[in-house]
Write a structure and sequence with these properties.
The protein is of the alpha/beta class. The protein has two domains: 41 residues, no CATH class; 233 residues, Alpha/Beta hydrolase fold, catalytic domain (Rossmann fold). 41% of the residues lie in helices and 20% in strands. Helix 1 runs antiparallel to helix 2 and helix 2 crosses helix 3. The chain is globular, with a radius of gyration of 19 Å.
Length: 290
Amino acid sequence: MEQPKITQAMIDAYDEYTHLTLDRRAFMRKLKALAGSGAAAAAIAPMLAASNAAAEIVAADDSRLTTADLTYRGAPADIKAYAAMPKDAAKLPAVIVIHENRGLNNHIRDVTRRMALEGFLAMAPDMLSPSGGTPQDEDKARDMIGQITPDIYGTNLVAAVEFLKTHPNSTGNIGAVGFCWGGGQVNRLAALSPDLEAGVAYYGAQPPAEDVPKIHAALMLHYAGLDDRINKGIDAYRKALEANGKDFQIFVYDGVNHAFNNDTSAARYDKAAADLAWSRTVGFLKEKLG
């Protein structure tokens, strides 16, 4: 059977659904109209979404790593997190991995292990911990993301920095990397925590210009060329960073979509852009964190 053709309009409709409306019925109606039939829409929808079955690139029991489920003090509840580091390592620079708007799922755990294999103590907090933790239902997770206030997210990310500064396997040099919703949180965390030394935001929403003077961290910002929704804020952010003398780099990857790094989404993943962005990210974090 011939694979259904996925158009940019379909990808845009999925982005609107997962980031703005959260209305699956309306999305499927639009997808049906774009695909030409209900059967075609049903075949295309899973290709646009992220596949939990495709999440594991580095095995959860990889013998090169030590992994653990952690808890650190947060507000209004303790925050659960997943951590990984090279086996038998003593002290390493630490990197907070901040998930997308689907919560702490298997893909983000896998990215955490990938970061650990690069030579870091990597920790991914479950930012939905105040609401009971990330559910299996991705639409429910997206809805829950919007029900926790930005102040609570900020408090709990600053607490993650503080936790890792004194972790027995940490050098005290702390960075962060985030994707989609998590990319926006990296930008916010950079303005909230003077102890964050480096932040990498993948296609993340930009902070208000008035917050930029408070940024201490060096920043690397990755954007997808076709991501009109997020890219509207690039110019203003660039100008504010320049005006305040901040250490930053911006990369725009032409012809790729929002979530191009997520290799569990067949329609949106772009290997060339993802590999280049990852190599830049790892080199940047090693340079800034030691």
